[in-house]
């Protein structure tokens, strides 16, 4: 599905510049599966019309989104280096800002790794330590009060939680749960197990009833690379179709 977007880092409008105020880590100290400084860093924003898969709701002002998903397994023997990212956030569907949190699932030199991050696009991503492995249960939330944003990611399997307090004057025109094809959007993507989002709520309502529902697939040309199941309340499954 082709949706009008923008190119992060090229001609983007610096509407949502943000300042990192504080971050707190709860639970046992844990090193990331791969050091955040050892993996490629990406801006997690739509760079073309074909790199987002998942659902977004529009049609009102959004002040919160939350939900859960499970870190997928990766088949890193099937392709070369590969970078994909599941996340939840506000904005980005039809605006030049995105307030979002999630993790990258990478294959680098045939080895799977996961790197957690938070981003107030067009500001750069902030990568942070926290072990994530395939099968881990992740919960996340993004909310705003005035100009103060609170973005939280938890790994309930490993017992860590990290919260960021950030500022930004943003547009709040969409809320979404997305799996994003990173990099230049044309490199091979390592096959990954289906990602099921559950418990998705926006403005306190199940995502399916929180606004106008929009579905999007990762595509190459006219070929869809991801497929969404129906959005049922606050749940859907995204499957990768091609290596």
Overview in brief:
The chain has 243 residues and is mainly β.
What structural class do the secondary elements suggest?
mainly beta
The assigned CATH architecture is: Sandwich
Strand percentage, roughly? over 45%
Q: How many DSSP H or I helices?
A: 0
As a whole number of angstroms, the C-alpha radius of gyration is 16 Å
Q: Tell me the overall shape.
A: globular
How far from one another are the termini?
20 Å
**Uncertain runs with pLDDT below 50, 5 residues or more?**
1-39
SSE order, as H and E?
Answer: EEEEEEEEEEEEEEEEEE
What is the CATH topology descriptor? Jelly Rolls
What is the CATH first-level class name?
A: Mainly Beta
Residue-averaged pLDDT, rounded? Answer: 82
Number of domains: 1
Give the biggest sheet. 9 strands, antiparallel
The strand count comes to 18
Helix % is under 10%
The CATH superfamily is known as Peptidase G1
Structure in words:
- The protein has strands spanning 19-26, 52-58, 64-70, 82-90, 98-108, 111-121, 126-128, 137-145, 148-155, 160-167, 174-181, 195-202, 205-206, 212-216, 219-220, 223-224, 226-228, 236-240.
- With 243 residues, the chain is mainly beta.
- The chain has one domain (19-240): Jelly Rolls (Sandwich), CATH 2.60.120.
- The strands form three sheets. Strands 1, 3, 8, 9, 10, 12, 13, 17 and 18 form a nine-stranded antiparallel sheet that branches. It has a seven-stranded antiparallel sheet with strand order 7-6-5-4-11-2-14, with no helix packed on it.
- Strand 6 (111-121) and strand 7 (126-128) form a beta hairpin.
- Residues 1-39 have low confidence and may be disordered.
